[in-house]
Design a protein that fits this description.
mainly alpha, five-stranded mixed sheet, 76% helix, rod-shaped, disordered C terminus
């Protein structure tokens, strides 16, 4: 490795020698001009030349030129002495020439001294750099391995917690769905069973009225239809069971009517009172069975009990052939049974509706519980990196809880489910965003000599801050020491080409605010020009803005604060752009 590769400044003494040689030639021409033209010399200029020569000799002596370039230093001293003698004898032109020659010899001695001193130190610095590099690499490897182990353990714990939460949520959801299905099926089954019972009641009445004798075909058809309805009900085919039960009731009613007609015709010779009484008594019994099917013993116990007692008295009267009393008792029984049916039917509907309501409440509570359980997961990333999504899911949960309190259970279920979905989406977005920003930070930290540049994550994304000496105060000239860093940064931006990049220039408060604003605009244009020149970036994804002195990050009272405020901020807008990962993801 050449010395100039370790220390780029090592070639400066050789360049200085060349510059000094050029100055000597120029001085010779100047001297000839003075002598040839007979120009008089300003005493102040003469004295300044002698002082400059003395200063150059002092500076060379400070750098041990007496050790490394003794001959040239002695020449410089001789020229200075001769210049002073010429000045004292009023030989001004010769004095200036001699003073300049002394200054040049002193600067040459200084350059050679610098070169020799640099050579001595280079080997020491090179060895120290190698040792520091090896130690640094070992330390970084240990840190990276430890960080990897910690990250893997945290990721495993988060995965276990997420898996457990999802299992609990899925189990609760499955139980709620099963409960809802069972409740709905039970209600529908009860309704169909009621239709079957009602058809059976009509068929039993038809049988009591003599349908087996006077309407056998219709009776058997109705009985067959009832059996089919029961079979479909047992198979869970509720629509077919309901349809056939309705047909069976209609057929049974036809059989009952035909039985009544047949009984009337067959007993034409018997007392019409008996037929009428028997019909009314049978009708009363049917009304009692109708009331019992809607749980009249629970909802209207006194009325149904009285209806049964009156029905029994009507039966006794029939056995005693006291048909007028039988009709009277049967009519009273029918009236009591009808009242019991009306009350019980209403109460039964309310009961079924209450059961359905309780099921809906349970579903709403279960869904809200699942949403609350989701918020008990590790959601710090979502809160920090996707606050909008997190707040939206939180708002939906609050709305679900308010809907539950206001008895709007469907809305509570809907909003709780939306809250769960939104939070899961927010967590995934935050995880992708965290991975993206971590990759950007790690990539930037790999830039050589990046130590003087600040790297942070802020609410907009990843911030790369160039401050202190990137620009001198009042200047728009970019410091050359940042050229390599900016070039490498451009390559990293290319890797994340789908992200928007914002470049901001800020100034300290020295000078006029309007001028500072213009200065930051010039600075950011210079920065952007170099960035685009050294990369293949598209201008479409880059925004440059000069903001002047209005956004300080430190005080402008002292130089340290002003150095911080005089800065260039390069921002990867990960949180205002779609979370698109780079081509390595």
């Amino acid at each position: 490795m050449h010395y100039s590769e370790i220390n780029p400044g090592f070639s400066e003494p050789r360049n200085l020698v060349v510059k000094l040689f050029c100055r000597v030639i120029i001085a010779c021409y100047v001297f000839i001009a003075y002598v040839g033209c007979g120009v008089s010399v300003d005493p102040i200029e003469l004295e300044n030349n002698i002082i400059n020569a003395q200063n150059a000799i002092n500076q060379a002596e400070n750098l041990d030129a007496a050790k490394f370039a003794r001959e040239r230093l002695n020449r410089a001293r001789d020229f200075l002495d001769q210049a002073r003698q010429a000045r004292d004898t009023n030989q001004s032109v010769q004095s200036i020439d001699l003073a300049f020659r002394g200054q040049m010899q002193a600067q040459l001695a200084e350059a050679y001294a610098r070169e020799q001193r640099a050579k001595q130190k280079i080997d020491q610095v090179y060895q120290a750099d190698l040792r520091a590099m090896v130690l640094g690499m070992e330390y970084e490897i240990q840190i990276a391995e430890t960080g990897k182990m910690i990250a893997e353990e945290r990721a495993h714990q988060a995965e276990v917690r997420e898996t457990q939460a999802e299992e609990r949520a899925n189990q609760a959801e499955a139980e709620a769905i099963q409960s809802r299905r069972e409740s709905t099926a039970a209600i529908a089954t009860a309704r169909v069973q009621t239709q079957i019972d009602q058809a059976q009641s009509v068929l039993d009445t038809a049988k009591d009225l003599g349908a087996l004798a006077y309407a056998l075909t219709d009776y058997q058809t109705a009985e067959k239809q009832l059996n089919q309805s029961v079979f479909f009900l047992s198979q869970g085919q509720l629509d077919q069971a309901s349809e056939i039960a309705v047909q069976a009731e209609q057929t049974a009613r036809i059989a009952r009517t035909m039985a009544i007609n047949g009984l009337t015709d067959a007993q034409a010779s018997q007392s019409q009172a008996y037929a009428k009484a028997n019909f009314v008594v049978s009708y009363a019994r049917e009304e009692i069975r109708k009331a019992e099917r809607v749980n009249a013993l629970i909802h209207a116990k006194d009325l149904i009990t009285k209806a049964k007692r009156l029905s029994e008295q009507a039966n006794n009267a029939m056995r005693l052939e006291n048909y007028d009393h039988a009709i009277d008792y049967a009519n009273q029984s029918k009236e009591q049974a009808n009242q019991a049916y009306v009350i019980s039917n209403t109460a039964e509907k309310l009961r079924l509706e209450q059961e359905a309501l309780e099921e809906k409440i349970a579903q709403a509570k279960d869904m809200i519980f699942k949403a609350e359980e989701t918020f008990n997961q590790d959601i710090d990333l979502a809160i920090n990196l996707d606050p909008n999504g997190y707040n939206k899911s939180k708002l939906l949960l609050d709305q679900a809880q308010k809907a539950l309190k206001s008895n709007n259970y469907d809305k509570a279920i809907e909003n709780a489910q939306k809250s769960i979905n939104q939070l899961k989406l927010s967590i995934k977005n935050a995880q992708r965003l965290d991975t993206l920003e971590t990759q950007i930070v790690q990539a930037v930290k790999q830039i050589k000599k990046i130590g003087s540049v600040e790297i942070n994550r802020n609410p907009n994304g990843v911030l790369i801050r160039f401050s202190k000496d990137v620009f001198e105060s009042g200047s728009a000239k970019l410091n050359q020491k940042y050229f390599s860093i900016i070039k490498q940064l451009g390559r990293i931006i290319e890797e994340f080409s789908n992200l928007k990049i914002r470049v901001e220039s800020h100034s300290d408060s020295i000078g006029d605010a309007v001028e500072n604003k213009k200065l930051t605009e010039r600075r950011v244009n210079v920065f952007m020009k170099y960035l685009l020149k050294e990369s293949n970036l598209s201008k479409d994804n880059l925004t440059a803005v000069g903001l002047g002195e209005k956004n300080p990050i430190a005080t402008n009272i002292n130089k340290t604060g002003r150095d911080k405020n005089r800065r260039i901020d390069v921002i990867f807008l990960t949180r205002t752009s779609p979370p698109i990962r780079n081509k390595d993801l």
